[in-house]
């Protein structure tokens, strides 16, 4: 047992980060050196209620208490002590969605998560009015759709927030939101670091005929930047989080953030000209910009870092699911032959063999669309492998085509940033399942984006560690460093991970592949349109 760590916990110097993800609530406890010392988790699932994806209020609090209890059990097991107080707490959660409350603090309709796509009419109308891309999952889209639907609860809204904002409010009594999470509620003006006054005014005019008693800024959380105090844990908040009653009130909280922001922090990608790519079941890239884009693009969402820099986000619904399905097929074949299966070996062998294929995959293309893909304007998906009789159909090209497919849509979105908007990037960090087989996914992504890609060991710690670091930034920053400098100097201390530069032959091959891929999209559209069976 580490007695130093035990005394850090007992003297209240540890920092707690909690992130509510879509399938897991995770808690990470870090020491003053920003290293994880304990963790806890709780598995949960969203429910489809009346056609909308939700998590109940009970599920939120039961999950948080269980996650915190799991963390406390880990502390007890490792260090034989209990948590009574902390240096800071940070809460983050999946962004966007809709949590609306009346003046009695009662939720008016079940929490509508980012996953709901019933907001198409509202998002299109707002995008046109604001001359700004407003995605379906943003909170403002949910609010306007509820207004267009004539939902009776809207007149009673006293407060509208995200999941992280709600949990933070209940713990601290403060109606605030970190700027990164707030940028997924309503566009942020980079000059004022607040909601766009122009868009607030436009929205209020659009809904004025309805005669609501509220104006938009009356019901939205106050926007805070990383490092600003966002309140203190109240006695009621302490009871809600810690079922044992040991946790004391008075602990400072950092601004609540969204999972995109905490991912940027956990990969040291908040500085301008840096970015990160998360590649697992779905994928997204976040590139921190030096200036605004010249115009809005339907496939690029504009959000911010936790300290308010503009970020261009390309979000793709599909990444590794179809690739994993093909790898499982080879696993079944191995079992059929009676050969023992080690999945790490199967992935390793197939992924590395893909690198021996032709740079353009010998003409093969793959569409990995298990679900619809907004970037390529497909409401539904049909996984397809497409080849002509003259293509070089072998295992290396087949695996390479499927690996290319996992980041092809990401490339289409990022090509706009790099080729049309001439965005410059010094470092992109990759994290997620695609990078588990050393060097392969990294090399493929470097070719797709024509940019060096770094992978760090710590990226696996995830968003709960990211929000704990924002808690540390609040209380362990006597020199008042910027967030980017704090991460560089105090957290990562020169560790930029292992970098792979793009191979020119790979880049040319991926460019050839993507042209064939885009030309073949009508095949995918036809497959969606003419489905053979239900």
TrEMBL record:
<dbReference type="Pfam" id="PF00370">
    <property type="entry name" value="FGGY_N"/>
</dbReference>
<dbReference type="Pfam" id="PF02782">
    <property type="entry name" value="FGGY_C"/>
</dbReference>
<dbReference type="GO" id="GO:0016301">
    <property type="term" value="F:kinase activity"/>
</dbReference>
<keyword id="KW-0418">Kinase</keyword>
<dbReference type="InterPro" id="IPR018484">
    <property type="entry name" value="FGGY_N"/>
</dbReference>
<feature type="domain" description="Carbohydrate kinase FGGY C-terminal">
    <location>
        <begin position="276"/>
        <end position="473"/>
    </location>
</feature>
<dbReference type="InterPro" id="IPR043129">
    <property type="entry name" value="ATPase_NBD"/>
</dbReference>
<protein>
    <submittedName>
        <fullName>FGGY-family carbohydrate kinase</fullName>
        <ecNumber>2.7.1.-</ecNumber>
    </submittedName>
</protein>
<feature type="domain" description="Carbohydrate kinase FGGY N-terminal">
    <location>
        <begin position="15"/>
        <end position="254"/>
    </location>
</feature>
<keyword id="KW-0808">Transferase</keyword>
<dbReference type="InterPro" id="IPR018485">
    <property type="entry name" value="FGGY_C"/>
</dbReference>
<comment type="similarity">
    <text>Belongs to the FGGY kinase family.</text>
</comment>
<dbReference type="InterPro" id="IPR050406">
    <property type="entry name" value="FGGY_Carb_Kinase"/>
</dbReference>
């Amino acid at each position: 047992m580490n007695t130093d760590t035990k005394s850090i916990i007992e003297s209240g110097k540890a920092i707690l980060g909690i992130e509510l993800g879509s399938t897991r609530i995770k808690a990470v406890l870090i020491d003053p050196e920003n290293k994880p010392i304990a963790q806890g988790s709780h598995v949960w699932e969203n429910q489809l209620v009346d056609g909308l994806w939700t998590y109940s209020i009970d599920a939120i609090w039961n999950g948080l208490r269980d996650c915190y209890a799991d963390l406390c059990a880990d502390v007890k097991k490792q260090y034989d002590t209990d948590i009574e107080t902390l240096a800071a707490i940070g809460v983050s959660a999946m962004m966007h969605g809709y949590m609306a409350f009346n003046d009695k603090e009662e939720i008016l309709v079940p929490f509508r998560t980012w996953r709901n796509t019933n907001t198409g009419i509202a998002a299109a109308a707002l995008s046109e009015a604001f001359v700004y891309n407003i995605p379906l999952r943003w909170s403002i889209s949910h609010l306007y759709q509820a207004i267009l639907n004539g939902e009776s609860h809207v007149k009673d809204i006293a407060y509208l927030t995200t999941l992280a904002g709600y949990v933070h409010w209940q713990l601290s009594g403060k109606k605030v939101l970190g700027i990164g999470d707030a940028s997924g509620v309503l566009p942020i003006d980079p000059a004022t670091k607040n909601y766009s006054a122009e868009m607030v005014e436009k929205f209020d005019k659009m809904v004025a005929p309805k005669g609501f008693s509220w104006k938009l800024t009356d019901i939205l959380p106050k926007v805070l930047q990383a490092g600003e105090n966002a309140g203190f844990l109240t006695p009621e908040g302490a009871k809600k989080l810690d079922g044992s009653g040991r946790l004391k009130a008075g602990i400072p909280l950092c601004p609540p953030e969204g999972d995109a922001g905490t991912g940027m922090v956990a990969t040291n990608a908040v500085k301008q000209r840096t970015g990160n790519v998360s590649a697992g079941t779905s994928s997204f890239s976040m590139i921190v910009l030096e200036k605004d884009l010249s115009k809005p693009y339907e496939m690029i969402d504009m959000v911010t870092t936790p300290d308010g820099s503009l970020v261009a986000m390309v979000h793709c619904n599909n990444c590794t699911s179809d690739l994993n399905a093909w790898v499982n097929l080879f696993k079944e074949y191995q079992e059929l032959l009676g050969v023992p299966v080690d999945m790490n070996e199967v992935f390793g062998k197939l992924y590395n063999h893909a690198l021996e294929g032709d740079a353009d995959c010998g003409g093969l293309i793959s569409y990995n669309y298990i679900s619809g893909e907004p970037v390529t304007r497909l409401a539904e998906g049909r996984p397809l492998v497409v080849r002509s009789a003259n293509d070089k159909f072998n295992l290396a090209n087949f695996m390479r085509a499927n690996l290319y497919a996992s980041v092809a849509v990401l490339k289409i979105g990022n090509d706009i940033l790099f080729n049309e908007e001439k965005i410059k990037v010094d470092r992109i960090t990759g994290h997620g399942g695609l990078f588990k087989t050393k060097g392969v996914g990294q090399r493929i992504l470097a070719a797709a984006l024509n940019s060096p890609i770094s992978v760090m060991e710590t990226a696996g710690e995830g968003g709960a560690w990211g929000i704990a670091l924002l808690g540390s930034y609040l209380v362990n920053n006597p020199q008042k460093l910027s967030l980017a400098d704090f991460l560089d100097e105090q957290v990562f201390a020169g560790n930029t991970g292992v970098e792979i530069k793009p191979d020119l032959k790979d880049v040319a091959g991926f460019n050839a592949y993507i042209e064939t891929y885009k030309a073949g999209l009508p095949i995918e559209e036809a497959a969606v349109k003419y489905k053979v069976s239900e």
